[in-house]
């Protein structure tokens, strides 16, 4: 069972998972996970690779629906509504819960078109001017505006890896989501680009609920206020990041964060 | 006949050399020990065999080309040849007849003029045949003896055999390229001859096509050699009507197969589509001529067209479009499948539906590959002959009405080559000029398409 640290009472839950299990065919990848994702904080998922962090993250915006063999049990609430109920509009859900992937995946379109993609799909802008404004704010919030404002028509794939990842964050921001899910967003980047992304996460913190999967404990310690430790499909321990790193209650958590395995 | 015998002889000698070489290598090995030989005995055997067979085969091939020329030179130099007409068809046919009788292919002479030439032919053929056999055998023996003597314990037969094999493989791969080159050169040659008779400007820009193979070949009427109606017919049938059918259907089937179809269904439908590409085009031709064309004519009649043609551009184009579907769909399928899954995920995660993702991300990203596929398909369609020969007509109409009969470049190539004109008549030669234009256009299309595909591949590593 999950050990949940005390003193999480200031947590106002944006999303809550209740007894969530995920199966790929017959294989169980997530076993009975329950967690509250806070509104105002950054939550980090850590754990050895293959323990189900990505799988669980993908249940939060139903990206698992795109994998035919995947099946989700349990309940996931967004502002109290079950996102797996049959009436849930997945298009709407994914506008509210955005996602950034491990490898930067800008579309092979211009920088402008990459950002305009979401607003266009969801009909968020009335005219060209409004769209321009959305593109500019999104790029500004992603800290990319100054670097690309003179070449919005260049291809998004021509940017450097770190810029591409910030472009993907800007793309997610453009539809004004409430939650942003990030699956190891820095694992394909060099240390400087990584530092920029971490800085960006800090700035976005508070405006959006952010969930970040990371294999770097330092990164979790730097950017998050809540940490959940996953192991073999189970969530072992969950609490304030400072508590998890200084005072883990579970032996497996302690072993992992002291680097004894994993 | 004698070539076959000579080749068999070469193989026989080669076998003998192989055995001799191996025996010699074995004898070294027996006397000096297994480690003393730089290569296995079989490599020495192959070395000797190659040195016998290769020179002989090369010589036989060359001689089968050069020999007959030497023979006719010999015959023409004989006193009997003095009575021959100086040029033209008559002279050629007399010579051919005499040769046929001399080799025994024909029983007796019909033309008296040929009778006197039979004996010189017989004599020349006999002489050069003997020379050929003697030289071939000599080469075989020389090669065999030389290589046989080179076999020593430290002789590196293996590397030499390997290198020779490599050269032979290289030559084999050059055959296709050289053949293409040869075709091209002969096309150019005949085309230049044609353009000596008909001005290229008249040919390329003239609006009326109706060469008369019976007209005086020395003074062709250039206004009958305007190929624009053919180019138009080709483009209208192959690049417009056929593509209106093939592009949407091919693209949609590719999208369905890559994005929606259950893997089990895909494993059935995809091969079925590809089988479509293997149907002989003459079968499509039947279908176009016997089913589609009459149907279109009846339809046009029912819709009030007066006297519609039974051969229409529409029938040929529609069936050709169906024939082309597999080309478009398999190229589009490959390019869409080559777009990284990450693009698809990225779009879906933005809240796009599957069809929005296809329309806005996958197809634009795959576009270069799709365009290249379409270009390859066009180049196939405009070079396609059987369907249009059977379903289009030979009437060169310059019209935008798809119900009218039209003709294409390929149809006219067939018509001109099989027509009644003699071989050097401009009407016949026009087939080469048409072929040359077709060759250049399809080559250009393929070249551009392959470049596009290559750059597309590089874009996604
Ligand atoms: N599409 C899939 N199909 C089948 N099994 C999968 C799939 N994706 C992940 N898995 C399995 O689920 C488990 C958890 O994977 P994942 O969530 O990617 O782990 P993590 O992100 O923590 O490294 C692994 O055992 C993995 O092999
Ligand atoms: Mg993962």
Verbal overview:
Chain A: InterPro entries: AAA+_ATPase (IPR003593), ABC_transporter-like_ATP-bd (IPR003439), ABC_transporter-like_CS (IPR017871), P-loop_NTPase (IPR027417), PstB-like (IPR005670). Chain A: Pfam families: ABC_tran. Chain A: GO terms for molecular function: ATP binding. Chain A: This is Phosphate ABC transporter ATP-binding protein. By secondary structure, chain A is α/β, with parallel strands linked by helices. Chain A contains ten helices and eleven strands. In chain A, the strands form two sheets. Chain A has a seven-stranded mixed sheet, sandwiched between helices. In chain A, strands 3-2-5-6 form a four-stranded antiparallel sheet, with helices on one face. In chain A, α3 packs across α4 and α4 (128-141) packs across α6. Chain A starts with a strand and ends in a 5-residue tail after the last helix. The mean pLDDT of chain A is 92. In chain B, α7 (228-260) runs antiparallel to α12, α10 (313-338) crosses α12 and α11 runs antiparallel to α12. Chain B starts with a helix and ends with a helix. The mean pLDDT of chain B is 87. Chains A and B meet through α2, α3 and α6 of A and α11 and α12 of B. Magnesium ion is lined by residues 53-54, 183 of chain A.
């Amino acid at each position: 069972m999950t050990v949940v640290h005390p003193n999480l009472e200031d947590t106002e839950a944006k999303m809550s998972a209740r007894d969530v299990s995920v199966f790929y065919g017959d294989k169980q990848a997530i076993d009975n996970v329950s967690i509250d994702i806070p509104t105002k904080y950054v939550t980090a998922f850590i754990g050895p690779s293959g323990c189900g962090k990505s799988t669980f993250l993908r249940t939060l915006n139903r990206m698992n629906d795109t994998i035919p063999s995947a099946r989700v049990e349990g309940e996931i609430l967004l502002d109290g509504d079950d996102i797996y109920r049959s009436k849930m509009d997945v298009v709407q859900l994914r506008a509210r819960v955005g996602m950034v992937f491990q490898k930067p995946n800008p579309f092979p379109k211009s920088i402008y078109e990459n950002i305009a993609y979401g607003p266009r799909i969801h009909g968020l802008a009335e005219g060209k001017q409004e769209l321009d404004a959305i593109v500019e704010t999104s790029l500004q919030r992603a800290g990319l505006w100054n670097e690309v404002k003179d070449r919005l028509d260049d291809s998004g794939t021509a940017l450097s890896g770190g810029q591409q990842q910030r472009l993907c964050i800007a793309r997610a921001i453009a539809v004004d989501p409430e939650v942003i899910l990030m699956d190891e967003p820095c694992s394909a980047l060099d240390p400087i680009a990584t530092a920029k992304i971490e800085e960006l996460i800090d700035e976005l913190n508070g405006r959006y609920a952010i969930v970040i999967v990371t294999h770097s404990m330092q990164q979790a310690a730097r950017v998050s206020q809540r940490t959940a430790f996953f192991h073999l499909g189970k969530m072992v321990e969950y609490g304030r990041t400072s508590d998890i790193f200084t005072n883990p209650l579970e032996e497996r958590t302690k072993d992992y964060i002291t680097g004894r395995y994993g | 006949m004698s070539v076959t015998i000579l080749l068999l002889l070469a193989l026989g000698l080669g076998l003998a050399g192989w055995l001799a070489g191996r025996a010699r290598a074995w004898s070294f090995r027996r006397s000096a020990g297994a480690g003393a030989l730089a290569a296995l005995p079989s490599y020495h055997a192959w070395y000797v065999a190659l040195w016998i067979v290769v020179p002989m085969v090369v010589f036989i091939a060359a001689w089968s080309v050069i020999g007959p020329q030497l023979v006719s030179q010999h015959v023409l130099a004989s006193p009997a040849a003095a009575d021959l007409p100086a040029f033209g068809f008559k002279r050629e046919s007399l010579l051919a007849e005499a040769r046929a009788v001399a080799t025994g292919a024909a029983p007796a002479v019909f033309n008296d003029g040929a009778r006197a030439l039979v004996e010189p032919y017989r004599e020349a053929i006999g002489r050069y045949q003997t020379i050929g056999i003697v030289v071939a055998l000599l080469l075989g023996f020389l090669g065999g003896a030389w290589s046989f003597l080179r076999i020593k314990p430290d002789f590196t037969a293996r590397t030499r055999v390997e290198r020779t094999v490599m050269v032979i493989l290289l030559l084999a791969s050059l055959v296709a390229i050289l053949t293409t080159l040869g075709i091209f050169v002969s096309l150019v040659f005949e085309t230049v001859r044609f353009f000596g008779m008909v001005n290229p400007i008249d040919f390329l820009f003239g609006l009326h096509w109706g060469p008369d193979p019976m007209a005086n070949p020395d003074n062709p009427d250039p206004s009958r050699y305007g190929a624009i109606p053919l180019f138009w017919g080709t483009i209208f049938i192959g690049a417009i009507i056929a593509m209106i059918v093939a592009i949407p259907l091919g693209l949609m089937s590719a999208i369905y197969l890559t994005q929606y179809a259950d893997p089990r269904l895909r494993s059935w439908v995809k091969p079925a589509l590809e089988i479509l590409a293997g149907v002989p085009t003459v079968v499509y031709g039947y279908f176009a001529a016997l089913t589609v064309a009459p149907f279109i004519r009846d339809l046009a009649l029912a819709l009030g067209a007066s006297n519609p043609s039974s051969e229409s551009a529409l029938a040929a184009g529609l069936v050709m479009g169906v024939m082309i579907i597999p080309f478009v769909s398999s190229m589009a399928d490959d390019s869409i499948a080559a777009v990284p899954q990450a693009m698809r995920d990225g779009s879906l995660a933005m809240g796009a539906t599957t069809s929005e993702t296809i329309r806005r991300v996958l197809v634009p990203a795959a576009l270069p590959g799709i365009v290249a596929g379409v270009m390859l398909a066009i180049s196939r369609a405009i070079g396609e002959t059987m369907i249009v020969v059977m379903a289009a007509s030979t009437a060169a109409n310059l019209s935008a009405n798809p119900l009218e009969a039209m003709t294409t470049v390929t149809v006219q190539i067939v018509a001109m080559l099989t027509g009644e004109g003699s071989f050097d008549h401009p009407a016949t030669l026009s087939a080469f000029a048409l072929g040359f234009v077709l060759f250049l256009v399809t080559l250009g299309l393929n070249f551009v398409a392959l470049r596009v595909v290559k750059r597309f591949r590089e874009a996604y590593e």
